[in-house]
Structures are given as structure tokens and as C-alpha cells.
Amino acid sequence: MYNRGFKFYFLSAALIIVSLTSCKKWLAADPPLQVDENIVLSTEQGFKEALNGVYLQMGAKTLYGRDLTFGLMSVLGRSYDTTISPAIANLYYQGARYNFQDPELKATFKDMWNNLYVSIANLNNVLESAEKRKTVFTGNNYNTIKGEALAVRAFLHFELLRMFAPSPAAAGLNAVSIPYVSKISPYAVPASTTGAALDLCIADLKAAESLLSQTDMTTSRFTHWAVKSLLARIYLYKGDLQNAQTYALSVINSNKFPLITAVNNDWMMTKEHVFSLYSSLNISTDYYKSVLNTNPALGFTTQNQTALYVTGGGATTDFRRAFLDPTTGVALGNTIMPRKAYATATNLANVLPMIRVTEMYYIAAECATASLDSIKATDLLDSVRVHRGLPKYTLAALKTDSLNIEIRKEYQKEFLSEGQMFYYYKRKNLPFASLPFTKVPVVADASYVFIKPE
Amino acid sequence: MRQSTTISFSMKRLLFAFIACLFINSGIFSEVFAQKKDEARQVPKIIEKVRISVLDLMDGTGLDSVYITGGKKGQYTNEKGIVEIDSVPGGTMVFASKNGYLAQSKKVKANMQIRLAKKEIASAANDYRNGLYERPAEHFSGAATIVSGNDLRKINPVNFIEALKFYAPSFIVTRDILNGDDPNVTPSVKIRGAYNFPASATIASQSGTISTGAQINPSVGDFVASNIANPDQPVILLNGVQVALQTALDIDINRIERITILKDAAATAVYGVRGGTGVLYIQTKLPRKGDISVTYSGQVQVTTPDLSSYSVLNATEKLQLEQGAGFYTNNPSLYQSRISEVNKGTNTNWLDAATRTGAGSKHTLSLEGGDDDINYGLDFSLNNILGVMKGSDRKNVNLGGFISTRLKNLVIINYLSYLRSDASNSTYGSFSDYARQNPYWNPYDPGTGEMARILEDYTFQGNTVRFFNPAYNGTISTTDKTVYSRLGNTTNINWMMGYGFNLNARFGISKQSDELNYFLPPTHTAFANYTPTQFFQRGKYNQTSSEFTSLEGTLNLNYNKKSGLHQFYASAGVTGLQTKSTSAGIELVGFVTDKLSDLAFGNAYSNTRPTTGVIETRLVSGYGNFAYSYDNRYQVEATINADGSSQFGENNRMASHWSAGASWNLHQERFFHENKILNQLRVRASVGTAGNQFFQSYLGHTYYNYYTDRQYIQGGSNSGTRGIGLGAFLTGFANKNIKAPETQKQNIGIDAVLLQNRLSFRVDAYRNKTNGIVLPVVSPASTGFINFTYYDNLGAIENKGIEFDLNYAIIKNAKKGIVWNIRLNGIHNEDRIIATSEWLDKVNKANDAMPVDQTRPQPRYINGQSLTAIWAVHSLGIDPATGKEKFRKANGTETFTWDAADKITAGDMSPNWLGSFGTNVTVKNITAGIYFNYQFGAKMYNQTLADRLENADLTYNVDSRAAGNRWTRPGDNALYKPLSLNGMATSPTYATTRFVESNDFINCSAISLDYAIPQNIADKIKAKNARLGFVANNVFSSGSVKAEKGIYYPFHRMYSFSITASF
User: Fold this and answer.
1) CA angle A237, A242, A244 (to 5 degrees)
2) What are the pLDDT digits (tens) for A2-45?
3) Which residues, at least 6 apart from B965, have a Cβ–Cβ distance to it below 8 Å?
4) Among A residues 63-102, those touching chain B with beta carbons less than 8 Å apart
5) Residue ranges of A 380-439 with Cβ closer than 8 A to chain B
6) ipTM of the complex
7) How far apart are CA B259 and CA B243, in angstroms?
């Protein structure tokens, strides 16, 4: 009798435990046509795939695949001087006019805003999951994944800020900027001030800086050196020139990114990339053709090519002049020129530069100019010039005014159709009348601030 | 909240202990039996004195006069159930039998006990059964309506839904003005009121991403998908196993034994998360025991279209109207050609062009027989339903096999069923296309007499104008057909354990496979306006295959015990339910000729990938119910339930529900005894909760998808074989707290039977409040939730009302065989929104904006308002001076401009009262009845006045009222705006209170006549129970709104004749 009772309790207890645990598992049915987070993020490789997903998202047509690089952003940054007909390419026509109220332009801004924040949400999910699943990581990989996700999150927020908020030069640091979203949630985050958003970027990047390895020289992912470079860029934007210079010099003096002296048909100059984004070759060719080859054909006249590269402090020996090569266009049955983004056997046009080391020289030069160290500034500019087929400046110390002009010209020449010039003009809050190569008049109420969709 | 979780957990533990206990017990029993076998193997010897006591299996009382044989002669037990037999050889079998009990034999022992089980006596017709346990109606405190199959068949011999609403006003069937009586459209039904917002307002559509939470092209048998699409629909249980409403409609109505509608908390809390919207429990007939008998029932049903709501112009009138409106001012030659056509006598009645009188038939054959040990039945039915649109039909074939066997106290029942349904939709297209064709157009080619493709063809100002014949599409190889087959098996094992215990196990499995074939041939008028470059894109073929599998297992333990004046009932059980739904569809375009109508002849896929969906759901449900009755006078009962579902977020895996009820049988009180007026009077009340599982799946999961066409690696086309650059992106973010909405239910009711059982009266008042309705969360773009939506428990709806049912036997003369009954019932229900969300505000805003059709009133979901309110702008009528419509703005001023912001509630589509009345008379073997349903106090937007009168385009035919009452000159007090060639283009009429009308009606739902052939005549063909029947449905109706009904598909009138006989 005792025996039977014991058996009863033992069996019931066993049954309860087994059924409760198996029941919970049975009820957690995973969606069959999607992959549950628990499966994707159960391995280190899964975390990498989630980050790859973000890089692939960034390669979209309205993002870095086209419009944030050689597309719309280069139109805004005056990398082309073609007269664009509104009938052929309304988006670029309105872009050239800075007519941000145009519905098509507004729709593109909305797309950019939406998709950049989609990537941020993906990064936040990676960060939160990594915190919960520390055990799946081996070696230093937890730090790498976390650092990379934090850094890309800061990068994208800074991009949004540069597009959708007024620059500190125009509206100071207390203007309303963008929401800094550091947690995945369906509920709104209020917009920060420009200063606060920049500080959040800096905080994320500082955290990433200590997490990422200094020896990792991959350029297609966000590394320690990309973080440092981005910090230089952000400090400069914020007006903290001392920190900007420190970080810019730390990248230059690391000697990990030597400057090249000839392109060897690598027009993107991939060896000087600190951070670049891979785009699929087929896709980038499609995108390239959609703006540079077929209608609308954005391009540059030989006349302005000379004005940009030769006139003034330039020379015909500047090999960057060949960024604009009439023969490329001819080969494609068209007379347009920027060959940079056109892929050939040797030109890795699908490696889109996000940060190049030359920008560090220019940042450092700008900081030196501001602190009235003309010798240093001239020297930094000369270091680039000698690697570009140009002679050094005749003076060892240019005047402050000419330094500023030279820096701007160097930006223009160096980052042609890379989408960087717009940010330069915006950071400097340049009057629209002084924008170069203006073929269509800029609208009366033009602004450097993209229109937020919300 | 936290507290309830712990309760549910301890509940669950208790439950498992219970089940575990059962298993162990069964083990113990088998051990006991095994021991007995060992004893029997010993050497036989004479047992001097055998004392046998015979007891009732269930309550353990001694049974007298049991006939016992053992050894030589038979003997009877005494009043204590004991008998003693002398000198019996060991190994002899003792056989015990008693009338009303199942006989038993057992090996002899010196002191033995035999427990006899009562033969199953069909429990009283009005006993309450819910699919898990049963209680005598007098001991049940909840609200449930029970309707027998025989009663249903009196009203409608095809569709039980139409019949059920006659007996149960709380079973509300929405009259589908658009789809009419389309045999292939499942009606939408609900119990009492609304529990949810319509699916259109609760599911966020996301461009670019496929919805992963609800099946896209579900199988017709997919009850998960059909309940998401109709979130107020009750759970349908067919013999205790959940099925889709259409599956229940597909079975032969002749097989329905009875239907129980479970309404309040006391009835539905046992079903937990499935009980919120009520439960429809359908039981099918069990085969009769006895000699083999065969029953045949044949039926012919004739359906004719009911076009009485339509009134269109004839050829002459239409031409006159056009002429008057200046249609021919610039094109007099067209007028000439048309008038000559009219003069030739062309006056086509287009309403008849696509409709027909359908003569469907139904044959039911069943075979049954057996005894207490083995009982069997076979049934077969063929139901050929013909709709009133040409080519619209539905053919159902049902096959079923039933077998039950008894092993001692164990009864095993198995029912295997097969259903095949061939449902074709009319190839003629939508009926609305016919209602608008001009009567001076001839659908037939005058030369060939064949159906013409082009009705009219003329050139005007250099443009060719062509009108195509919709009826042409019906004569070519157009196909719109869904075929499905369903195989189902239900096994029931019932073990009368004795001592008041009864264990029941049920296992149901079903699998349904559907295939939809939809083909529009290249000459179909849908492609008539394709340009020459699109020539090879004409023709479209869509093939969708879907499948639905459901597995359901239930284990129930019941206990009842009567001790003096105390009666106890206890039941506990667990249910597990798993469903899987899959669907895959492809679409091809580019067919060259009508003849090549196979998928293989398509030129290309219209999408690069097939449309696919897979949804799996899982549910575990446990309940316990306890009821107690004291002296049949006072009853109390309580239910607890705990459910776990894959639909819930991981932080809310369990949902618990409860109910408590009490009833008082006043008629059992001493002061009511010996009373000639009052036979029965019961007062009942219940309160509790049940849940609502009908929302999208996987809302509690965060999930990813992979880029399938690119990798994040350098080089060429971003493809590589190593897969290191694969990229994943979020496609859904979990709400780990998502849970089922909960309905709090209150019910109070009175049942009375008066005047020597001639008058019965039942009234129930109720209030149901559903909280935590699952709605999308509005996420700004900066959250990154662009391609998917986060859902949360946000909205709330309350319904409350009162229902009654009155039945009176005017004549009840059993001797002469005359019975005359009348019945009146009704329900008053109010639905009210009590909590909305930001999402619903967004829906409201979108509904008021222009891309949404404003010519019809769009719903608004506003706190405190009814779900069925009609929102329209307050009209002050047609201004006599200008002929423009004058409106009152929200701020009280008058305006000529229609503005959605000025909308007011212009009435409610839900009636104040809705119900039925009817009477039937039986004189000897003839029964005749007439049954009506009614509603009053409802409003309706007269869409016909908007679409077919004021907004009408005179290019096509219009409502016959289009000519009159129009404003023509200043000073006219007109009802309608001035006539124009195209009202929608000149001055569109948007939702206006001017067209809101009272929607009261009385509809004669059935007239029936039944004749039982006298046995002496039936004997000549060796038949038994032979009957002849006639039922006419929807014969006439009288209503206050003059508007077209049955827009895409007309309503029908149905006349059916049937003959039934057993052999």
C-alpha cells in the first residue's frame, strides 16, 4: 500500500514536470515562413548576418547605393554641372534647385529617413540580443559585434542629423534635430537637440572605440579606425576642433592608411578607404547607369573640369582630373564623364567610399587653420597634393583665407561624386549664391535641411 | 494580473495531477484483473457456498431481482442485491442480467461482487451538453439554447443557419446585401453582439511585405483563418471537435441531431480562450440500434431569383431619359440607331440574362443497426445545390461510417467521414454588371443567334466607343471553381469507471485539401481594352492549392454523486489542439486562345514567386467545473479554466478564465407544489470570463528574413559559395506580452412554463464586455517599424441586451392528434465601443479622406458609439433655389459643400428588435407551418439612390426612379438633384443623411407542409416512417426600404419537395 502511494506521487510529479516543460516548448511555435530571432541569433554567424543585413540595407538605391553617394547627394553637392531637364529627371532637377518642397524630393527624403531608421532598429535588436546571449560568442567577438553595431548606429544617426537637422553653423547646438533611437521599440522617441544628438553619437563611438580591435584592418565593416575617423568628422561638425584634430591626426599618424600616388584604374581609390560599403556590382552598375549613363545623364563639362582641376592652384598633372574622363562616356555611347562609379575589370566601382583617409588630412588642416597654424595646415594639404600628381604649394604657409579656399577645392576635387560636398557646404552654411557650377537657379527659400516625414 | 497567473499555474498543476492520477488508477485496475486471472488458473474445486452481491456500477446500490445463473439453476437477488448459491464447481461462469442493465458474466468466487452498468438511455432532450460534460437542464445555471435537428428541418431543408435563427434570436445572421444567396459564400454569424472590431480595422496592411500572421488564401476548412476574417464568429464544434462554419454547412442537414448555442460565462468559460464569442455545439445523429434498416430521403429544391428589389428602366423609358438629359445633343445619329433598335422590339431584360431557375436535388441514404455490443451505421448523401446565377452551383458528397463497440464498461465509438465539395462560381460575373446594361442592347448577335461579344459599337468625335457583353464571358471557357475534399475521423472512448466516475477521451483528426482554379480566357471582356502590344498578356490563370490539418484531443473526467438531497457534479479535462494551414498559389498570364485553358498554356508568371503562406497554431486548455444542487431547488456552479496558446506572447503564455453561476428552481419549492398555473419557474444568473483567440499568429515573435539575392561580400555580383556574407533583416518584432482579449460576461435569466405546460417563456438579459482587443500600434517611422507592425491589447467593446422566446400551444389535444403552436421571439442588442486607440483614429481619418469611396457611408470607430452607426453629413435637402444639396456643418451653419468632418451619426444599422414569429398546426399526420422573421428600429443607407440615381452615369441603365422628383427649375421642392449625364462627374452625392432610411421588415422565411404517410399505405411498399414534405423559403417579404438587394448575387426563393422512408 505504501509502495503504491509512493509510486503514485513519484509518477504524478514526473508527469507534471515533463508536461509543463514540453508544453511550454510546444506552445512556442515558430513562424514557418520567417526565421525566428531565437534561431538566427543563436550563433555568432547569425549576429554577423544580422549586421550584414544592415550593410545590405544601406546599399539600397535611395541610400548609399545611389542617392546618398553619386546620385541626389552629388547633385546637391554640385559634382555635376549638367543642365538637367525636369521632364527627364524631375528629382535631380528639383535637387539642383534645392526645391525641397517638391513632392518627389520629399518622397525621397521620406524613403531615406524610413530606411535609415529601419537599419537603426535592426542594429538595436542586435545590440539587445547580444546582451542577452553573451554565451554564444567566442573570443573577442562579443566586443566586436557590439562595437560594430554601436558604431554603425552612431554613423547612421549622424548621417540623419546632417541631412534632417540644421547645421550648428546655421542654428547652433540647441536646435531641434532628430530622435536618437537607442532601443528597439514601437513607440516614438522625441527628437533631441543637435548638441545632444551629437553627444549621443560621440558616446556610442567612444564605447565602440574601446571595444574594437586596433589591428582589424577590414574596411568593409566599421572598425576601430573608422570609429576614430568618424569621431574626427563629428567633432569638426560640432565645432570641437581640438578633439577633431586629435582624432584626425591619430588616424593619419597610425600610418595604417598610406596615400597612393597613382590610381591604376582603381578610381574609387579603395586603398585609402577607412570605411567603405560593398554594393552588388550588378546593382551598382544599374544604379550608375540610371543616373550617369542613360537619361538623366548627369555629368561634367570639359570646361569645368579644367576650372576645377587646373585653374588656380591646380595643374594638368593632377591625376584626379581623370575622374572625369570623356572616353568612359563615349564607350557607353554617351558623352558623360564621371568614371569613378563605372565598373570595369579593374575599377571596383561597387566599393563605395564612406570615409577616406584624405578627409582626415583636410580635417586636420582645417583645425590647424583655425588655430592659425598655417605651416601645419599647408603641410597637411601638401602631403595629399604630392600624392595626387601635384606640386607642393609655393608657400610653406598659405594665408588663412587661401587655406580655406584650398581646403574647399581639395574637398571638391577629391570627393567628386561621392556625396560628401553637400555636407561641407552645409557645415560651412555657405550662401546658396556661392555654390559652384549652378546651372539652374536655386529657389528663393532654399535650405540645407531635408524635410522630415514626421 | 500577477495573481491570476499564479492561479492559472496552480490550476494547471492540479489538473495534471488529476490526469496522472487517472493513469495510475488504470494501472492499478489492470493489476487487480491480472491477479484474478492467476487465481483462476488454480485447480478447479467445488465451492461450498457462493455469496454474490450485485451492485449498480455508478452509485453502488444493491440491485434486486437480478437473474443469476451459475451452476444448475437460475435465482434472483433479494432487495439488498444479494443471492447465495450452494456448491458451485470452481471455474464456473456466473451470469447476471437485469432489465435495463447490461448483462455480465464473471468467474465464480466464494464471495463475489458484480457491478452492472445501466444501459445508456438517451438522456432527456433538453439536457444541457456542451461537448465536455452534461447536466440536467434543471441543474444548469447558464444561458444556452438547444434546438433539435427535426425542428431545424421544418424551417429550412438545406441550410441550418437559416433555420437556427428562427429558434434562437441570439444567433444573428447578417443579411449579406452584396452577396445575396450565393451558395459559395459563407454567411457571417455571431452570437448576441459584437466582441471585436471588423478585421478590416484591426489588421494593418503593409506594402511590400506579406502578412505572415494570417493565412492568405486559406482552405475553406481553415477555422483559424475564417475566425480572423470574421472575428465575431462563434467557435463551431462538430461533435466536440472544432471545425469551420462552412464545414458544418457542408454536412447533410438530415444528420444533425441537435444544436446547442452556448452563450454566457457559465456555458463558455470551460472553453476558455475559445469561448469569448460563444460556441455552437452541433451533434450528429447516432445510428439506431435494432435490425438493419435503410432510410432514404430524396429532395428536389427549386430556386428562383428574387429580383423584386430591382426596378430598372425599359428600353423606351431609358431612351427618353437620355434624350431629356441631352445625351444625344452632339450625337443625333446614335439616337437614330438606338431608336430604330427599340422600334424593332429590342427590350432586353438584362436581369434575366444571367439568372436562372435552378433545380437542385439531394439524396440521403443511411444504413443503421446493431445492439448494445456493436452498433453501426453508414451514411451517404449527395447534395447538388444550384444557385440562381447561371453556372453557380455547389455539389457536396458526404460519406460516413460509424461503429461503436462495448468492452465491459468501455465504449469505443469511431466515426470516419469524407466530404467532397465542388463549388463553381458563375462565369457570368457579377450581377451588378447586368443590372446596369441598357435594355436597348441585344445580348444575342441578330445574325447568328449566338451570344454577342460587343453590344454596341459607334464612332463619336473620332473615338470608337464599344460596349461589351458581360454575358459573353459565360459562354466561353471562363472557370472559377474551388474543389475540396476533407477526411475526418473522430474517436470517442467512454469508460464508466464506477463509483460515480466516468472517463471520456476523444480524438479528432481532419485534413482538408482545396484547389482553386480561376481562368479568364483571352477573349474575356476584362481584356477587351488591351492594346495590341498587350496582346500576349491577355488571359489569366490562377491556381491556388491549400491544405488544413487539425488534430484535437480531449480527456474528460466526470463525477456525479447523489447523496440524499445533495447532488454533486464535478468535471475536469484537458484539450490539446493543433492546426496547420498551408497555401500556395501561382498566377499565369498570356493565353492565346480560349480553347487552351490549361495552366500549361500560359505565357509567363505574373509574379516572380508563388503566393505562399503557412500558419500553425497550438492550444492547450484545461478546465474544472463543479456543480451542486440541493434538493433540486438551489444550484450553484463554478468553472475554472487555464489555457496556453501559441498565439500568446511568452510573458503571457497562460490565460485563465472562470465563471460562477447560481439558479433557483422555484417550482420545486413546497409553496409552488400542486399548482395548475405554474409548472416551472427558474431564475438563473451567471458571471465570469472567456477569451477570444481570433487574432493574427506570431505577434509574440521577433523574426528575421534573409536577403535571397545578394550577399555582403566584395566582388562581382555579390555572390559567393561560402555564404559568409548572408544578410538577415527584421521582419517582425515581438510583443512578448500579447494576450487574448478577454470577455467579461454577465447573464441573468428566467425560464417559466405555465398553464399546464402550454406556455413556455424564457428571457435572458446580458452584458458582455471585451477588453484588450488586439490592435496595431501606430509607430512613427523613426522607430524603424515600417515594414511590419507591432500589435497590442488596446480596444474594448461592450454588448448588452435582452432576448426572449415565447411558445404557446393554443391547442394541445393528444387524443385527437391536434397540436397548434405559436412562437414569438426576439433580441434587443446594443454594441458600444468603450475604448479605441490611436490606430482606430488613423483608420477613421483615412475613411474620411478622398481615395476612400465617399459615396457610401464609411465606418467610424469612436468611443461611446455603436459599431454599426451610419456616419453621414446632415443634409437639409435640395435647395429649391439652386438645386444643390444643402448641409448643416458641425458648427451649425449651412453650406453647399460636403465635408467629411461634418459627419454625424445618422442612425444605426442594428435593429432595436430582431427576431421571429410563426405558427404550426399538426392535425393527425399532417403538419403545416408558416414562419417569419422581422426586424424594426434599424436604419440603412439607401445605396441605390446614391449609385443608381444621383451618381448614376446615363451611359448605362439606372433605377426607374431616376427620372422623377428631380430639381429642374428654381422653386422646385425636389427630392433629388437635377438630372445630369453623369452624376458622379457633375455633382457627386457623398454620404448624406438624406438617403438614410428606416430598415424595418417582415420576411416570410418559410412555409412548410409535412405529411406522414399512414403505416397501412406505407406497408404496401414495406416502408416505415414514410413522409412527404414541402418547404418554401423566403416566399415574400415586406420592408420599408426600396433599395436593390443582392448586388453581386441575387437573393433567391426556394421551394423544396422531399420524400423520406425507412426500409
Assistant:
1) 45
2) 454 455 556 556 665 556 566 777 777 777 778 888 888 999 99
3) B974, B975, B976
4) none
5) none
6) 0.90
7) 14
